[in-house]
Fold this sequence. Notes:
Helix content: 40-55%
Number of strands: 12
Strand content: 15-25%
Shape: globular
Amino acid sequence: xxxxxxxxxGKYFILGINLVVLILLIISAYSDRVSSEKSVFxxxxxxxxxxxxxxCLTLTVIWLAFRQWKYALILxxxxxxxxxxxxxxxxxxxxxxxLPQDCIKLLTYNVMKFEHEKAHKKNNPNRILQYIxxxxxDVVCLxxxxxxxxxxxxxDQDIKNALKGYRYSRTLKLSNGYGNxxxxxxxxxxxxxxxxxxxxxxxxYNGSFIAELDIKGKRTTxxxxxxxxxxxxxxxxxxxxDLTKEFDSDKLEVVTSRVTKRLTPAFKIRxxxxxxxxxxxxxxxxPYIIVCGDFNDTPISYSRHQIKGDxxxxxxxxxxxxxxxxxxxxxxxxxxxxxxSKNIKAYNCSVDNSIKNSDHYPVSTYLxxx
Length: 370
C-alpha cells in the first residue's frame, strides 16, 4: 500500500514537471505578443525561449527512450504548437546557388563608430569601411555611424571618399558624442534617394529614419532602425561574461540584479519605439518596403514582432542557424534584422562572423522585386 502511494506521488510529480515545462514553453513562444510596457515578465520569457525549448526536446527524448508515451505526447504537443517560434529562432535552409540576375544586395551593419573613427588610409584601411566596399552591396544601412569634424580620426569626407561607389547617401544626426563627434544613422545607395526623414521618438543615442528609393523603377520605402540600447556598462558586461566562464552562485544574484535593472527600462522604451515604427510601416503607401537595423532585441521579442507585422523576415525565410549578430561578452543573440514586403523575395540572408571589428556582425541578403 505504501509503495503504491509513493508510485502515485511520483507519477503526479513527473506529470507536474511536464506540465510546467509545457506551460513555460508556450508562454515564452508567444511572449512577443505582449508589450513590454504592460509586463516585462514576458520580455524575459522571450529571452529564455531557446533554453526552455531545448529542455522540452530533451525531456521528450527521455520519455520516448523509456517508452513513457503519454509524457512524451504532452511535450510533443507543445513542440508542435511552438514550432513557429522555434523556426524563427533557428531556421534551416540551403543556400541558393544561382541568384536571379535582377537581384539587389542589401547590407545592414552596426559599425560601432567605425572602430571609434579609426582613419581610412590606403596602406592602413579602416577594416569596417573596407568590408563595406568589398561587400559590393547595392544599398547599405548603417547604425552607430560616427565621424569627427576635425582631427586625426575618421571624418565625414573620408567616409564619402571611401564609399564613392555609392552615388547617393544621407545621414541622420542623433546626437553629439564626445567633443566634435557626430553620431547617428546613414544610408549609402546606388539608387536615387527620393526622400528622407527622421521617425521621431524619444532617445538620445538611438533613432530611426524612413527613406524612399527608386530601385530600378520600383518606388521603395526603406526604414533603418537603431532601437534603444540596453545600456549595460562595461563592468556589468564583464561581470556577466565572467559568470558564464566560471559559474559562481554567490555572484549570480548580484549580476542578475544589475543586469535586470538595465534591461527592464530598455524593454519598455523599445516597446514604445516599436509601436511608433510600426505605425509608419502601416501607413506606408509605396508598393515595396524594406525594414532593417539593430533592434537590440531577440527573435522572440515584442519590438521585433511589432515591427515585422505582416512583413517577411529575410533570415527566417532564407538563413540558417541562430544567426547571432552581437559578438561581445557572450550575449549570444540575433538582434539585427532585415524585413521586407511579400512582393519582394529574399535569397541567402546571412550573418557574416568573419569580421569582428565592431561588436555587431554585418547582415546581408539578396532581394528580388516581383
